């Protein structure tokens, strides 16, 4: 049983390695194609007049910036979608907290007194902590603004 397990693991690793090598080969081929395209474009621009070279360079830069802009818009849409999802979750959790607090208000005084004793013990155990959030100092204004909203 043990040698079979090792053999199966070795085969899995070999398969993963082969898939990774294949993916890297595809990536190298794609890079070679891109390099060839860039070389051809460069050779074509050398044959152009200086004014045409400048115009071609500007067109290339505009194309690059447009593609970069589209990528950034796509990223922004993903982040906004994630923000909406997180806001919905926050509303759900806020509702649960309010429901929990309302249910705690109806607990008899004896039960609440026992609960306070437990909370005090927990607070003493956690007294060593400075806080629950870790953040960079430059992110503090953003964190405060998000906490307020």
Automatic annotation (TrEMBL):
Keywords: Coiled coil. Residues 7-96 form a coiled coil. This is MYO5B protein. The gene is Myo5b_1.
């Amino acid at each position: 049983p043990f040698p079979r397990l090792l053999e199966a693991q070795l085969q899995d690793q070999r398969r993963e390695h082969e898939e990774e090598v294949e993916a890297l080969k595809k990536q190298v081929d794609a890079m070679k194609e891109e390099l060839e395209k860039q070389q051809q474009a460069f050779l074509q621009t050398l044959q152009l007049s200086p004014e045409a070279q400048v115009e071609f360079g500007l067109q290339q830069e505009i194309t690059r910036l447009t593609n970069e802009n589209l990528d950034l818009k796509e990223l922004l849409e993903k982040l906004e979608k994630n923000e909406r999802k997180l806001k919905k979750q926050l509303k759900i959790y806020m509702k649960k907290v309010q429901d929990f607090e309302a249910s705690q208000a109806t607990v008899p005084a004896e039960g609440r007194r026992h609960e306070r004793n437990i909370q005090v013990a927990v607070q003493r155990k956690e007294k060593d902590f400075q806080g629950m959030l870790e953040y960079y100092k430059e992110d503090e204004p953003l964190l405060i603004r998000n906490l307020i909203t």
